[in-house]
């Protein structure tokens, strides 16, 4: 839920950038933005994709819009062939400078740690669900019956098992489950490592909340190099049809004013806090599979505060 909340926040922030600063292309940019964040979400969930392919696919889709709506706002004939040519040309002429590559680098670290943590949590859930119902052997069933009900044959319905006797029976019954102890401890240590990684150089909140700025800088770079880009595109893709006289640049909202006027507030709880609470809770379960017999033999099942209890053979 925290991942989804962060992704929605970053997507809304990026959409707002286009709606306020780049209105001429906002409507057409909505789909590439949506696809980018869908790809990121699928990556975190473990899909066979990469951050680099998602980001570069986004910039491939963005370049035809930037070229036809901002750099050459007079273009009227943007055919599928011409659009595809612009998409392919983007990879060669690199209109967005180093900003697209930087965005890949910044996102890759934090999204990798998030992806690993997400997969680790899924594995933990699988382990817990698998061991929720332990299969009892015939010997275990007999030992449990003997422990719980044999005193009744002597009319001792209120006498409960001795602690040591209960522990022997439970440890025998749960031997296969307790074998998970070493792996479970290692699993908790791995979770701890991943949560620490996410809080350090791989901070997901910082990476996602900065995406809109990276995209903005990339578009600005393309606009500043508009004449050179146009000359190269004309050679590769040909000249598209133009309106009589280019559209005035006044129809484009000044980027600096628009972005400075925006204030974004994170409405969701901090992912850092959620991580800290989660790992603190999980660390307390480090000995869960080793101490499961002790947990079961605690409380009402056994006689603790009395010298009289059932040892499997007699009242002692």
TrEMBL record:
Pfam families noted in UniProt: Glypican
GO biological process, one term: regulation of protein localization to membrane
One Gene Ontology term, aspect cellular component: extracellular region
Cellular localisation: Cell membrane
Keywords for the protein's UniProt record, in alphabetical order: Cell membrane, Glycoprotein, GPI-anchor, Heparan sulfate, Lipoprotein, Membrane, Proteoglycan, Signal
Membrane topology: Lipid-anchor; GPI-anchor
Origin superkingdom: Eukaryota
rRNA-binding recorded as keyword: no
InterPro entries per record: Glypican, Glypican_CS
Family: Belongs to the glypican family.
Role of this protein: Cell surface proteoglycan.
UniProt protein name: GPC5 protein
Species, as recorded: Cephalopterus ornatus (Amazonian umbrellabird)
Gene coding for it: Gpc5_1
